[in-house]
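Troubleshooting: if your tokenizer reports a length mismatch, compare your output against this known-good record of 119 residues.
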Amino acid sequence: CCPAAGAGGGLVQAGGSLRLSCVASGSEIMTQAMGWYRQAPGKERELVAAITRGNDKEYGDSVKGRFTISIDGAKTVYLQMNSLKPEDTAVYYCNAGPSISTMEDFGSWGQGTEVTVSS
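Known-good structure output:
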């Protein structure tokens, strides 16, 4: 099964904060890693942040030091986004898969939540 649609998107001014959440409903194997990707208009999809059940984390270079990913229990993942910039504007997609390295190709995707950062 796919992750539930992430919650917490919206419109915020630059410098503000948002928190995204996602609850996965897949099997234990397919929820070993969870995370967020984003896609801005005209750009390729990119990894924002990912986390494993063992608390290994990976962040995209553009969000390091500003975004924090965490996991609550087995299947709820949060993305705390601080110091938001206009270039963070994108549709954010939750993903759950067997590992951080394979989740983009083999994981399950949520419907996406829109984040808009105004300057």
